[in-house]
Amino acid sequence: MSVLKDIAGPLAAMVAVALAVALTTSNFLTPGNLSNLALQVSIVAIVAIGSTVVIFTGGIDLSPGSAIALMTMVFAVAIKSLALPLALAIVVVLLLGLLLGAVNGVLTAYLRIPSFITTLAALSAFRGLAFMFNNGSPIFQLSPDLEALFYGRLGGVPLPLFYVVALYAAAFYWLRWTASGRAVYAVGGNPSAARLSGIDVRRIQFLAFLVAGVAAALGAVLMAARLNSGSPNYGVGLELSAIAAAVIGGASLAGGRGNILNTAIGAMTIVIVQNGLNLNAVPTSFQNVITGAIIVLAVGIDMWRAELARLLGGLAGRPRPGSSPPRSPRQGT
Amino acid sequence: MSERRPVWSLRGVTKRFPGVVANDRVSLDLFPGEIHGLMGENGCGKSTLIKTLSGAHQPDAGEILREGRPVVLTDPIAAREAGVSTVFQEFSLVPTLSVAENIHLGRLPRRGRRVDWAAMRARAAALLAEMGLDIDPDRTVASLSVAEQQMVEIAKALGAEASLLILDEPTTALGLDEIARLHGLIRRLKARGTAILYISHRLDEVVDLVDVVTVLKEGRVVSTAAESEVDIGYIVRAMVGDVGDHYPKQRNAGAEVVLTVEGLSTRDRLSGVSFEVRRGEVFGLGGVLGSGRTEVARALFGVDPRSGGRIVWRGREVAFRSPKQAIAAGFAYVPENRKFDGLFFNFAGFPNITASRLDRLGPPYAMSLAAEREAGRGLVRDLDISPAAETREVGKLSGGNQQKIVIARWLFAGADLFILDEPTQGIDISAKIAVYRLVNRITAEGKSVILISSDHDELIAMSDRIGIMSHGRLVRVGEAGELGKIDFVRASAGAGPAAREALPT
Q: Between chains, do A319 and B18 touch, taking CB under 8 Å as contact?
């Protein structure tokens, strides 16, 4: 029940956006376009799981875009130069993701540097490291088996859709039915109260960055598979799309509030809008402006909820706007 | 009486909100140089009345008179200009700015287009001196003690010439010393001829301070200033009806010592604190704010590291390095400030209740939300917490309900030693009595309580034995019945006036 209530708002917004696009274009609802959408959303949606978990703990992660560039390069070198088998190379990338997440996590949780700063530093440093491989040039033609990971289908459905569903199901389960998942929200809501309730606050913050690191690593493998290459220029701005997905999905940047499923919906919303603008031949520059406007609108609607409700209530002849509730929260203390 | 004229009066003020009449024909007179107590339970309409007087609400009926003439206070700015200054419970100071800047915030003196810093400083200094406050106007507010901040708040309110000062629970965060200083200031303002409307839940200090009392209940005046007696028993009866004993103390202390604290020290705050707590006993810890009471709790609970001493719990020496270990051993800590350290405002009631022992909801990788709901409902019913706690975030519940939820967390945890730090601060009388009953229930089960409180009546009434802290030392331990208020003052002052300067701010 409460899950449906949680996701109702963002889901309704996404459906509204999809309807608008379907009505203004002729080929939005074609199977080809829809599977194209699934491919487009998969990478940002997976990366956004990590960004959202970090946001739930009250932090922010600005580094996944750069981390992905670095990991695609390491992935490429592992396959091409070290001649590792594909499966082993993927394991290497996942371990690297853990390591990069651990760097952010140690600096933030144990050395107490605010996550905005540590991950801003990582945003710069990881990209710099990515350029140190192969003289800063992309590496192409990694493996003939690689593209299947991204373009493969099962029963006609693109594989990345299965990854997204599986990972969100796992994240949802973790956050809802496990003690450490609950602790993520507790730490984000009130770290001091969490500590006095016996929760190891630093361990949970660290854990969130590990999750973010693994999510970025999975994103890196898909990114490399998509173009069968590694490049230090991959993932520019991806961290912001991931944060936008979380925020459009209603995650509070103050921490402690939000539902991970809404991040997937938020990512879908962004991609549908971009797709609609593409199909209507709107130039990319203008698309970026619109994406910005949507972020403001999505958060705005959340912030103005009380006013909007009053406005709607006023139209229906309910109490006038400006009359305040009988018991203010202050009075309750 | 007859020749005195009230400076402000309310006549039949009524304020309705959808579904409630928050103020129902309320009348009262505020005289210059008189401290008027406004009492009543949460939700009785005090806040609405203050907001009406300070221009935030407009009355639906009735009128506000200034010196006998009706006035309309259209908004808070108009009210302030008419001479009503209000100090709300929540501070409105900017911590990073200086005292002088805060006092003049929003109306900085100017010369031409520039801020006249010299004039601002001089005016602030004059105002502080006039109020008898020894506070440097150049200090940043963040560097002041809570009490000093409260006084700056009042200075800020008085910056405009005020004929009426409204104080809403000004002492919630203050210790005995600081309350005394604040009362001194209020009395000086009274001598200056300011009318003062004073709201507080701390009956003992109200009775010490105010000249007359008006009691509100369910939006109505149930006892006017003329008929009220300034007496705790009278006020409680008027506010809540006959509740039986205000302090329903049960004595459940056994002989068996469960906790022995020997020479407990921390690096910068505590030195050589020793005491014992028995099974079923309430051991009170008194002393002024900053005397080390809270530090004892934190050191026991594994929050702050110890530098020396031993703690023996049920016959075994323990050395907690984190609250987690303390919780596992059966300790519970209800912190002084439930807003900052106690509650998760992003959660409804149940996750708040289960937070410290999620392992009781099944394996950590498969918690049972049904078990959580069941346990939560049971405690909500048992402790008479508002059923809204199931669905609403705790920020939307009253202070009393919030405090009960924090205590419920430790009942759920099945703790054996409850450290309650100011458990009744800022909650109304019915909720306080409910907390006292909970203390009885806990001790009746053979569990022990360490009760920390600044309210001496409460401490003396609800404890079996009391230790008094002063400057990080336990200076006196005695049976609760043998200690009077004077012992607290003496014990606290024992370290001499010089040591007062060393009090942390």
A: yes
